[in-house]
Structure prediction request, 274 residues.
Amino acid sequence: MYFCNERMKQTLQAPQLRRQQLTRYIAPLREGGSLPALAEADDGFKYVVKFRGAGHGAKALVAEMIGGEVARACGLRVPELVLLDVDEDFGRTEGDEEIQDLLKASRGLNIGLHFLSGAMTFDPVVNRVDPLEASRMVWLDAFLTNVDRTVRNTNMLVWHGENWLIDHGATLYFHHSWDGWEKAAVSPFPYIRSHALLRYASRLREADAEMRSCLSNEWLRSVVDSVPAEWLVYEGSGLSVENVRDVYAGFLTRRFDSSEIFVNYAEDARQALV
Prediction:
């Protein structure tokens, strides 16, 4: 696992996700509200696909893309994210009516994570994690306001002896209500108390310094700018696509500049556990 120095920070590029066509629906993964599925694309690889027609709509895809690429930029292991097209023929032979409805509602651009064949679910009771790595992951989830990396559902895999992060669709939860995003950006994030790795995150200050060396406000804006425009049409919000981009970028940069707030809270929450 690598971490940024100042020179790497200066050369960090905006993510450029590959785009592929889905060709074969393999099986639903009956976990979570996003109704993901295992599917194959025209590059011959299998992906865990999140569909824009699922319960949380395109917002879950936005969170997946931003969350996953921020984690990757910080040197944490995340399966490759790929933009995946669903056309009217995809899944036509699927017999489940609920799945047929989901695929019809998901025509267009969706997102997938490269399928890690043979990976095992990370169990914080059984699997061990280095204190600094745990601290980096806790920092990431506090920054992204990820409510979904708990002991019961770690959203982590062990693959070839290494820890991998998956499923960032529950990050950036402020976007389910646009009101008060400025306040949310500087919140301490109380949900971090339930984080699967908080007990082991004894080096949060060091992680904060490292993460801040990896990212910049300019790069965070570039990530937001790389999100497909069709995912940012939020009916009823009264916001244009560019307005929506500005809100996401404003949230991320303000939160990044205020990292001491959520780091202090996480440290206090950890002390209460140990």
